[in-house]
Amino acid sequence: xxxxxxxxxxxxxxxxxxxALVIAQALRDQGMEVIxxxxxxxxxxxxxxxxxEDVDVVGLSSLSGAHRSLFPKVIEALRESxxxxxxxxxxxxxPPEDIPFLEEKGIRKIFTSGASTQLLADYIKxxxxxxxxxxxxxxxISHIGIAVNSIEQSLPFYxxxxxxxxxxxxxxxxxxxxxxxxxIGESRLELLEALDETSPVHRFLxxxxxxxxxxxxEVADINERVVQYKRQGIRMISDKPVSGAGNSQIAFLHPKAxxxxxxxxxxxxxxxxx
Length: 274
Ligand code: ZN
What we know:
Layout: E1 5-10, H1 18-29, E2 33-36, H2 43-52, E3 57-62, H3 67-80, E4 88-92, H4 99-104, E5 109-112, H5 117-129, E6 140-147, H6 151-161, E7 165-172, E8 177-184, E9 187-194, H7 200-208, E10 211-218, H8 222-231, E11 242-243, E12 249-253, E13 263-267
Parallel strand pairs: 1-2, 1-3, 3-4, 4-5, 6-9, 10-13
Antiparallel strand pairs: 6-10, 7-8, 8-9, 11-12, 12-13
Bound molecules: zinc ion.
């Protein structure tokens, strides 16, 4: 199999290419052949270079703020030169609010400056080999976990004042907690009470008192997701999913990964599964 060939291009007048050079080197380290256009290339020059170098993918870098006009022009130039099938990705200093616009204009994916080069390299390889399997968005908020001193004492507020319905109360030995699930639409609140002093919830209550403890996202591919997150350098609380309430598999991301919020991934067996 021939190595993946990538054209890294700086569009427009932006005169800084340190970031582009770092990316080029990182992709070379991953075994790719990287051609760098140099600074100040016009969209047409970039398209012609992509064709001449027979690359598999074009990576555009922009720091100048001109990405909104330049990136779509590169797509256009490729199409007009009969090379509209070469995928184009972009990166650099790009405000998140511009991402939907650029993707609509045909840029396959925008990598913001915080993205790891490993993630970028993986994405390119999968894109080129046609095996690209997009990590789906989590399905919904499974539940919001609330740490309480006592489930029994907390329930009247949720049941009688808010009028929520108690779905079930169960112990989760792996997490050393007792939990009560209250249904609210298709989501839930999960009240968490520590089973003993070694429980993470006990430590949470000692440190912060009662309050929101975690947000749980329902996913369909927890094992794959944990592997991929770890690959991207995301800190996980445990290396592998563990057993959660209701036959679910759960895994926690470290709060440092998510702006101080503890995020739980949870996967419930689908109906029909055994
Ligand atoms: Zn939970």
